[in-house]
Amino acid sequence: MTISPRWLCATVAFTLALAGPFATWTATAQSLMQQRSSILNEPPSGSAEPTGGDAVAAGFMNVVYVPGKVIICSLGTLATVGILLLTFGTAHQAAKSTFTEGCGGDWVLTADHLSGRIQPKSDLEY
Prior knowledge:
By secondary structure, the protein is mostly helical. It has 2 domains: 1-42; 49-126. The chain is built from 4 helices and no strands. α2 packs antiparallel against α3. The chain is extended.
């Protein structure tokens, strides 16, 4: 039995229609947690001390994150060189943006990132 594209589209649309209300529920839950922490004068839940589990999770995540970052940075560098060659260096701002988007930001995730103690650097902060 094969599934026709029409049934596949209908299934996806139905799933998205069911998932829509959950977006408002999560936003409401987040605002309630913020109100609760401000009333109780608690620090935000994301600023906790890193645990051993955070360190282990960061190690596992870096197995995929670091090689992915290398691949994206390499492609961004090639695109930057291509932009500079095609425009004879006149589009240096676009080349800089392309390079920093691929190679900027944090290269290694730490337990501090996962616990929320420090925020990851955006790719465009450099």
